[in-house]
Amino acid sequence: MANSCRSQMAEGFVRHLAAEGVEVYSAGLIPTALDSRAVAVMRERGVDIRGQRAKDLQAVPQEVDVVITLCGEAEEACPSFPGPVIREHWPLPDPARAPGSSEEVLTIFRQVRDEIEQRVRTLLAAHGKATPPCRPQGKMPPHRAAKGSRPTKGNTGGRIKNPGFGVPLAVRER
User: Fold this and answer.
1) Domains of the chain by range and CATH?
2) Would you tell me how many other CB atoms lie within 10 Å of the CB of residue 100?
3) What is the pLDDT of residue 150?
4) Whole-angstrom Cα distance, residue 58 to residue 162?
């Protein structure tokens, strides 16, 4: 909802791992500020997201190829986008809401970050948009595509939108 953690991490990984010509966007229904813990755990992976900012849906182009939601509320609240769009839902917990000590919460941030990285690697590899050697690493929990979604000929690369309420994270071919 806030576009402060999960979708920001996903956007960072897409920017870091995607082939040239791929654009990525993330947005929230009620954007706040980038969570410093997300910045810290991404830095551990060598991905700098300090320059990213929380955005609302107005910052995302209407034409996208893939829409990814990151929590249940986003899946239901995600707006429709024109044209054929592949939808996926990655039901990941919000690490910003995790209970526990600072170290326990950072552990949750790392777990969510690692899951997002694996899913982004798999997504980019499946769409032929990964910079080599971006291959899925290890076994990843299955994710489900939204009802009625299917890849369409000529619409499998390019724009990826990832709702970061996770509301949308969008990647688009230039």
Assistant:
1) 6-173 (3.40.50.2300)
2) 10
3) 32
4) 14
